[in-house]
Amino acid sequence: MQVRSVGVRVIDDVLDEAVGRRHRPDPVIGRSSGPAGNAQLTAWTGLLLLVLIAVELVTLLDVRGLLSWHVVVGVLLAAVAALKIASTGWRIVRYYTGHRPYRRAGPPPLLLRILGPLVIAGTIGVLASGLWLIAAGPASSRQPLATVLGQRIDWLSIHQALFIVFAVVAGLHVLARLVPSVVLATSRTRGQESGAQLRGWGPRVAILGATLVAGTLAAALVLPAASSWHDEHRGFHEFPPSGSGPAHE
Ligand code: HEM
Predict the structure, then answer these.
(1) Ligand 1 contacts CB of residue 66 (under 6 A)
(2) Is 103 contained in some domain?
(3) Please, what is the average pLDDT of the chain?
(4) CB 84 near ligand 1, within 6 Å
(5) Quick one: what percent of the chain has pLDDT higher than 90?
(6) Considering the domain boundaries, does residue 249 fall inside one?
(7) How far, in Å, from the CA of 132 to the mean position of ligand 1?
């Protein structure tokens, strides 16, 4: 009975958070607004990630034809995901090092606390393996690394498998965090006179803007390195499709 009621409460906590019925009271402290400011930056970054993820999903409809978009949006995603991991990581470090305002705000619901590191690992996995494919080029990326249950594993199939992992963990995260994101992204009054922006609004906009500029510059540097994949698609080189049987000798 006891275990069941704990289980029910754990799930209720996430559902309450996901529908916006409840969110921890983030104190507004100092020029950056402390925990409330951190939550706002995390929410803004999350919503921007959602837009970029949606665009990246569209490129999967024709990844060969839209390869340049896939690479550019992928690099932008890496920059914005790095900011997301930094802002949530800052909250985790402040919480575990006993910073009082963050202790007072408290941790996220238990299931989201467990899911968080999986979302970070899935995100780093799919983005890093994608960048590795560009660095390695089509020939090395299709070299078999191992054969598992008769299935040939190469870097391309690893990237595809990590995308599925990412889709599951990030999908669950977004289900739980979409409504709170919208509430947090527009949060003005929490602990403030109604209508006033949370202090530190300007620097947070600047951080997001700088991240987008850095991501765009990185994409401009990385895109030329993807030319071997373009060549392959234009048929300059013959490679067997990923993960399909032994290579043509
Ligand atoms: C795809 C890469 C993403 C990564 C790696 C990531 C990672 C995390 C982590 C580790 C946390 C802390 C655990 C938690 O409180 O749930 C978190 C919180 C949060 N995430 Fe994400 N997330 C991602 C995408 C998103 C997206 C797309 C959204 C928006 C729909 C979002 C919105 C939020 C919100 C609102 C919080 C709580 C902020 C707070 O109250 O301080 N995240 N994220």
Answers:
(1) no
(2) yes
(3) 90
(4) yes
(5) 75
(6) no
(7) 25
